[in-house]
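hey
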């Protein structure tokens, strides 16, 4: 019974994905009268944005606007919603009461430069130069940041209720969501933190390891929910870079004398090999968090790209309805592989959170272990 329900749910989910993404591309094809471009279609759905695109294109598109926070020396702080940007082309503009005109192009916001081709006064040339040299600091809440804040809020809610449940039901068996999360918490403590860091020091790093694991896991699951704007939180390089930077800083700040001594003067290595080994060890210290960042970003983005590629095959062979039988034929094949990839992505959602947490625990253990005599 549960197997049939799971298969039905996966089939329905992939069908919804196919329908939503295909309709987006088909609407765009009708409006622009251009050939379908799979690369633009894929990048559009996995890239970060200043709004959450639900479905449709052009005037019929449904978006959830997000806050725009911009600062420039000329206009100061400007706060508005992304719906203030007008137009549906590659460049959209927003005119603000402060007198600033902002341009949104390919996800980047800048001050618009006025056209002074018909007015050559010194004053206008001065204004043109001022706008051209102005820099805008973009502090906006983008789609990835919104997804990150959503996951953090969900974690605070879930684990806050979990802690409250333990206090109110002391000595009793957990129930509900607490019962579902407790095995994962125990798994992180007994199978990741204690074996790699040690029983005495594991409690110090366990809060960070738990936070990182559940944040990555929940964010990965969010990206697999259709009709929610195609969140790609852990596929955004800026977010994974911050996670990797935290791992690097915690490792460096907690490194003991044995750790730094092994890094800058490895024991048991012949003296003439030291000039080769020491640079490798130092580079490896920085390379470890970089590998964490790249692995997580690449694996999550690759899963989305593969699923979107199967959708693109339907649109390419169908040719917007002109090759109906070819579209149906490749549609059956693509849908079957999308169901397989969706099952694989559910595994990858957990696996990538597990690998990131495990490697972070290993790095912490290397930094805090004492020398063996």
């Amino acid at each position: 019974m549960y197997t049939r329900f799971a298969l039905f749910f996966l089939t329905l989910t992939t069908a919804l994905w196919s329908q939503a993404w295909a309709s987006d591309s088909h609407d765009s094809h009708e409006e622009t009268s251009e050939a379908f471009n799979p690369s633009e279609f894929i990048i559009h759905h996995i890239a970060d944005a200043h709004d959450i695109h639900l479905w449709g294109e052009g005037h019929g598109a449904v978006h959830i606007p997000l806050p725009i926070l911009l600062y420039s020396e000329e206009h100061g702080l400007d706060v508005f919603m992304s719906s203030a940007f007008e137009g549906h082309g590659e460049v959209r503009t927003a005119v603000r009461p402060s007198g600033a005109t902002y341009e949104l192009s390919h996800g980047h916001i800048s001050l618009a430069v006025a056209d002074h081709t018909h007015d050559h006064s010194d004053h206008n040339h001065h204004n043109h130069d001022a706008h051209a040299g102005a820099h805008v600091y973009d502090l906006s809440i983008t789609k990835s940041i919104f997804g990150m804040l959503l996951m953090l809020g969900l974690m605070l809610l879930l684990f806050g209720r979990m802690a409250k449940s333990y206090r109110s039901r002391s000595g009793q068996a957990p129930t509900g969501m607490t019962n579902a999360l407790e095995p994962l918490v125990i798994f992180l403590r007994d199978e990741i933190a204690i074996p790699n860091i040690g029983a005495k020091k594991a409690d110090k790093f366990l809060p960070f390891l738990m936070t990182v694991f559940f944040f990555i896991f929940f964010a990965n699951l969010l990206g697999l929910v259709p009709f929610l704007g195609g969140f790609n939180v852990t596929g955004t390089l800026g977010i994974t870079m911050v996670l990797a930077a935290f791992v690097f800083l915690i490792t460096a700040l907690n490194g003991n004398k044995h750790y730094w001594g092994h890094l800058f003067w490895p024991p048991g290595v012949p003296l003439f090999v030291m000039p080769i080994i020491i640079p490798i060890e130092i580079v490896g210290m920085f390379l470890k968090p970089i590998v964490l960042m790249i692995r997580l970003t690449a694996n999550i983005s690759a899963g989305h790209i593969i699923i979107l590629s199967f959708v693109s095959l339907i649109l390419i062979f169908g040719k917007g309805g002109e090759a109906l039988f070819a579209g149906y034929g490749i549609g059956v094949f693509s849908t079957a592989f999308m169901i397989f990839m969706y099952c694989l992505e559910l595994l990858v959602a957990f696996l990538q959170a597990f690998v990131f947490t495990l490697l972070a625990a290993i790095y912490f253990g290397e930094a805090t272990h004492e020398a063996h005599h």
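Residues 144-368 form one domain. The chain is about 65% helix and 10% strand.
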